Amino acid sequence: MTGPLFDQDHGGAAGHDRRRARRPLVVLAAVAVVALVALAGTWTWVRAKVDPGGPPGEEVAITVAEGATAADIAELLADEGIVSDARVFRYYLRFTGGAPIQAGDYTLRRNSSMSEVLSALDDGPVLAFDQLTVPEGLTLEEVTERVDTIDRLSPERFLKLAESGTTRSRYQPADVDTLEGLLFPDTYRIDETEDEAALLSRMVQLFDSVATELGYDRGDRPGGLSPYETVIVASLVEAEAKVPEDRGKISRVIHNRLEAGMHLQIDATVIYALGGKPREDGRVLFRDLEVESPYNTYENAGLPPTPIALPGRASLEAAMNPVPGDWLYYVKYEENGAHAFSVTGAEHNRRIAEAKAKGVNP
Q: What is the pLDDT of residues 341-361, one digit of tens each?
């Protein structure tokens, strides 16, 4: 019996040792499980903070101050409900390693994901802008008056630059400094970084782009006119035409008169010579026709020295593509400003009488 008893005692001791050896493993496994569960819970919590899910909320305007730290920005975003947790957003910024956030105004949405917020911040602040609408037919002086409605721009500086020759159109002759007629009529959004020179440059570039698109740089301009002379014709068309269908015909009358060596006798040039402001009734009086000015096309042959107004696309196109016809005269014939076109002086006088009989002031 001593053998079996010895073996039993020996075996019991070995089992006890094995159980003792297993305890740390069990504890470690338990700790690992707890850690994994905690980690999984933390990750789920962090993920919910990074991307709360659901549609973004209402827009919120915020301002990032000069010198604001990442912590300042994170607190601001959390306070506005744009991100759900300032601390997590700070870590998110650190983890993604994005560029420094610029100071300025931003429009963000509440309940956004942090990736959406960071993308919007990386795009930079929203620039404040003013809107300037420049319609067709304005003179440079009248454009300047509109520039004066924008507080941060100086109309005096704008006009001085526009007449100095420092900003130039590709269609501007070397001996002409003024940009009269060489600014494209359009609506311009002017951001806070732009000054008078930047605005002027943009207006000229747009004019050049449209004129080039319409073929002003080609050699087949009607009447063999230069590009600048064709712009002058376009400005006359813009000033005279009151309905779209008259543009091409007025262009033809101008080209026909130039080719025939006739004075253009265009009222709009006389109005320009008198300061650009027509009388209240729109009439040009006989005494007005005697004004001494190179722009008076009743007294001077050929085209005026510069454009007299900003031509839009339609007038620029009409100057390049006059409607075929033999007309040498036109007169206001309808109350809406539509003209009647004539080949002879006798026909023209008859049209004038007809217009007056209808109560239209030609």
A: 999 999 999 999 999 999 998
Could you give the C-alpha distances from 291 to 139, 186, 299, in angstroms and in order?
A: 19, 32, 8
Q: Check residue 33 and give its pLDDT.
A: 45
Q: How far apart are CA 253 and CA 233, in angstroms?
A: 11
Residue 172: closest CA among 142, 140, 198 = 140
Amino acid at 326: D
Query: CA 242, CA 255: separation in Å to the nearest integer?
Result: 19
Please answer whether residues 308 and 216 qualify as being in contact, where contact means their C-beta atoms are separated by less than 8 angstroms. Answer: no
Q: Is the pLDDT of residue 244 over 90?
A: yes
Q: In three state form, how does the secondary structure of 259-303 look? A: HHCCCCCCHHHHHHHCCCCCCCCCCCCHHHHHCCCCCCCCCCCCC
CB 82 within 8 A of CB 109: yes
Answer yes or no: are the C-beta atoms of 146 and 132 closer than 8 Å: yes
> Which residues pair with residue 130 across a beta bridge?
190
Q: DSSP letter for 326, please.
A: -
Note whether 171 and 227 are within 8 A (CB). Answer: yes
Q: Position of tokens 């941060």?
A: 152
Q: How many Å is the Cα radius of gyration of the chain?
A: 39
- Are 296 and 289 in contact, with CB atoms under 8 Å apart? yes
Predicted local confidence at residue 259, as pLDDT: 97
Residue at 51: amino acid letter = D
Q: Name residue, tokens 């008893």.
A: 5
**Amino acid occupying residue 123:** D
* pLDDT value at residue 37: 42
pTM of the predicted protein model: 0.71
How far apart, in Å, are the Cα atoms of 248 and each of 63, 109, 272, 284, 315? 53, 52, 22, 24, 8
Rounded distance between C-alpha atoms, residue 340 and residue 256, angstroms: 16
Cα 338 to Cα 350: distance, rounded to the nearest angstrom? 16
Complete domains list, the chain, with CATH:
59-122 (3.30.1490.480), 140-325 (no CATH)
CA distance 93 to 207: 45
**Contact (CB, 8 A) for 54 and 111:** yes
Report residue 261 as tokens: 């060596």
